[in-house]
Amino acid sequence: MKFSASQIAGLLNGTIEGDANASISTLSKIEEGVPGSISFLSNPKYTAYLYQTQASIVIVENTLELTGPVSATLIRVESAAAAFATLLEMYNQVKLNKSGISPQSFISPSAKVGTNIYAGEFSFVGENAVIGNNVKIYPQVYIGDNAVIGDNTTLFAGVKIYSETQIGKNCIIHAGTVIGSDGFRFNPENDHKKVPQIGNVIIEDDVEIGANCAIDRATLGSTILRKGVKFDNLIHIAHNVEIGEHTYFAAQGVVGGSTKIGKNCMISGQVGMVGHLQIADRTTMTAQTGISKSITKPGETYMGSPAFEISKYRKAYIQFRNLEALAKRVEQLEKQGK
């Protein structure tokens, strides 16, 4: 689709300098701009590219003063970064605005399906599943029996939703993620038999889960991701875990069974937590932190493995770096004492 500078300026409440009929069909970085693309300038470090770019339209801020001729049409706004983010969101909506049910998909006759859904090739919806309005089910998605998918939720290619899983409204589940697989429980005292996992997974509204994550169903009850949780790729959540509202979790994290994580926590990459812990609200964990004990005081930052409070960790690390010099001093003092 093509858009003119006047159309874009209207959407962004901006003013035009240049050709109001200039048209674009794609987006680009300012240093990689090509004819027919739109870009933006908000970081002063990239100002030189404004006078070189081949982009047809560039979004700039009202306060920008030009120091030379510019070939692109300019759209001036209060915040170029915010305006371009709005365009990115609109572009994504257009790109992902799929609809219709492929004849190569299967939806059980007992399933309840809302209006304006998209079901791609080889997608499967099981018995008694409930699919809300405006749901997008990409190719090769599996939705098990009795699962519930809320309005405006998107399941990208290859997502697997096991039976009884409940997913809220406005969620995004990226490719390859598995939700509702069995928790990892075996009984060494009973011939190592598998412990049946008969609970489910509940994902509340406005949750986004990255690619290739695994979220296990509960043994009893539910594994729960509360409203607004955001996951990166490659995260494993064990059975009966609960993640509090608006907690962010970066890639390659692992949470052991029955651990409860509070609200508004910030968890960096490769963090691991053992099971049966309580993590206070607003806890921050730096990359590769290993959590082996509950955290009860809200708002603290933890570092290291096993983890402890970051200011103590930094002091201890200074001593660790000086360990060789300290060892030599001790050795010299011992020689002097002989």
From TrEMBL:
Example GO BP: lipid A biosynthetic process
Molecular function GO terms recorded: N-acyltransferase activity; UDP-3-O-[(3R)-3-hydroxyacyl]-glucosamine N-acyltransferase activity
EC number(s) on file: 2.3.1.191
Keyword annotations from UniProtKB, A to Z: Acyltransferase, Lipid A biosynthesis, Lipid biosynthesis, Lipid metabolism, Repeat, Transferase
Catalytic activity: a UDP-3-O-[(3R)-3-hydroxyacyl]-alpha-D-glucosamine + a (3R)-hydroxyacyl-[ACP] = a UDP-2-N,3-O-bis[(3R)-3-hydroxyacyl]-alpha-D-glucosamine + holo-[ACP] + H(+)
CC annotations in GO: membrane
Active-site feature positions: H239 (proton acceptor)
Domain of life: Bacteria
Metabolic or biological pathway, per its Swiss-Prot or TrEMBL entry: Bacterial outer membrane biogenesis; LPS lipid A biosynthesis
SUPFAM superfamilies linked: Trimeric LpxA-like enzymes (SSF51161)
Domain UDP-3-O-[3-hydroxymyristoyl] glucosamine N-acyltransferase non-repeat region: 22-89
Gene3D superfamilies in UniProt: Hexapeptide repeat proteins, MurE/MurF, N-terminal domain
Top enzyme category: transferase
Family indicated by similarity: Belongs to the transferase hexapeptide repeat family. LpxD subfamily.
Cited function: Catalyzes the N-acylation of UDP-3-O-acylglucosamine using 3-hydroxyacyl-ACP as the acyl donor. Is involved in the biosynthesis of lipid A, a phosphorylated glycolipid that anchors the lipopolysaccharide to the outer membrane of the cell.
PANTHER family cross-referenced by the UniProt entry: UDP-3-O-ACYLGLUCOSAMINE N-ACYLTRANSFERASE (PTHR43378), UDP-3-O-ACYLGLUCOSAMINE N-ACYLTRANSFERASE 1, MITOCHONDRIAL-RELATED (PTHR43378:SF2)
Assembly behavior: Homotrimer.
Protein name in UniProt: UDP-3-O-acylglucosamine N-acyltransferase
Taxonomic source organism: Limnovirga soli
Name of the coding gene: lpxD
